[in-house]
Amino acid sequence: MSELPSCRFCGAALPHILVDLGDQPLANSFLKAGDLEKHEPKFRLCVRVCDECLLVQTDTTVPPETIFSDYVYFSSYSNAWLAHAKAYSEAMIARFGLGAKSRVIEVASNDGYLLKNFVARGIPCLGIEPAANVAEVARAAGVPTETVFLGKDTAQRIVTEGGAANLVAANNVLAHVPAINDFVAGLRELLAEDGVLTVECPHVVRLIADVQFDTIYHEHFFYFSLAVIERVFATHGLTVFDVEQLPTHGGSLRIFAERAGRNTPRTPSERLHALRTLERDAGVRRGDYYDGFTRRVAATIASVQKFLADARAAKKTVVAYGAAAKGNTLMNACGVTTADIAYAVDKNPHKQGLFLPGTHLPVYGPEKIGETQPDYVLILPWNLKEEIVQQTRQIADWGGRFAIPIPELRILPA
Question: What integer pLDDT is reported at residue 196 of this predicted model?
Fold first, then answer.
């Protein structure tokens, strides 16, 4: 009998499986034409719940260098995400009085999509971005960026060289770092004594409630509740004082934290108290809250497979919009091939001309839809469905329909 994996935070054994999605390729490891006949590495994609601390986590660790050193995700290709980043920047500047004497550090700063808003206001910034190709785009846009993985030692060096930060932003990165203890310790080291840390991450309550299993992939090592984040942060000298619930990524949290033990700690907000109560009443702190998810995932997969089988039987053409990581998890879990979906489109030119991992669907620019006039457009990044429907509304001209896969396959009204 093989030894059980251990919790990456508390070290306890992990017998409790949330869902097992089998062997899958890395969701952002796109292929070139010459790679299609080569062996494609796959890794088990199984998520477990720690019965001790209730941290939800994958049980396979793919080295971050394998995933992030040359990355195809660029934040600036979603108008909705750019608007979200701009609104965040303006809100933080106003709320915390940031100015020319402040310092803002973003961890996993990608292509500078967020920090450019602070740069435009004359606020000193530093981006920390481990993907060299993405960091270069940020630097070209005028955003100072270091290509490095964050940990406690790295953070201490950065502070020694340039000073601590009044604001540290870590948006959609906390789930991406397997060494969570070293990473969170690094976040604390970056903070000035009166500094504020904001962390955005998808909320496990929405994952469970809306069967968002497609947001599970190897680079997402963790799926957080507020309760677990507070426990992890407290272990590393951070205190949560506020939280916002956001619509991004199907339902996310924006956590506000500060160094523990400040002389004048910030008052915990009513929003924080309310979300603690919501999670407690939902049962997030009980192990049985996570039972039954596998059955609901199977039902969603079956609904997608039936839609594709019915389309094939009726000789209808289906294409995918969005070469998104979540879409790759979904399609590989459903066993999709080019016989089911002809191709995918994406606005990101770094993905165009490549092939999706596992399914090997070719990726084109969005104009391909107008050229081929498919019967159905399956929107894989369903969290951006309003933006995509607006951009692709011309499919109504030939009677095309949109389909959404989560929480179960549904065809949108014409």
Answer: 98
Sheet strands (E) in 310-379? 318-321, 344-345, 363-364, 376-379
- Pair 399, 302 in one domain: yes
Please provide the average confidence, as pLDDT, over all residues in the chain: 94
What is the domain count for the chain? 2
pLDDT tens across 131-165, in order?
888 899 999 999 999 999 999 999 999 999 999 99
List, in order, residues 6 or more apart from 207 with CB less than 8 Å away. 56, 213, 215, 223, 250
pLDDT, tens digit, 9 for 90 and up, residues 302-358:
999 999 999 999 999 999 999 989 999 999 999 999 999 999 999 989 899 999 999
| Residue 248: domain span | 75-264
Distances (CA, A) of 132 to 72, 147, 181, 292, 336: 11, 6, 24, 41, 32
Q: Are residues 251 and 343 in the same domain?
A: no
* C-alpha span between 147 and 152 (Å, rounded): 16
In 3-state terms, what secondary structure has residue 389?
helix
pTM over 0.85: yes
- 119 with 235, same domain? yes
Is there a domain that residue 349 lies in?
yes
367 with 308, same domain? yes
Q: Would you state the pLDDT for residue 1?
A: 43
Q: Once rounded to an integer, what is the mean pLDDT over residues 224-246?
A: 98
Vertex 155 angle, CA 150 and 157, to 5°: 125
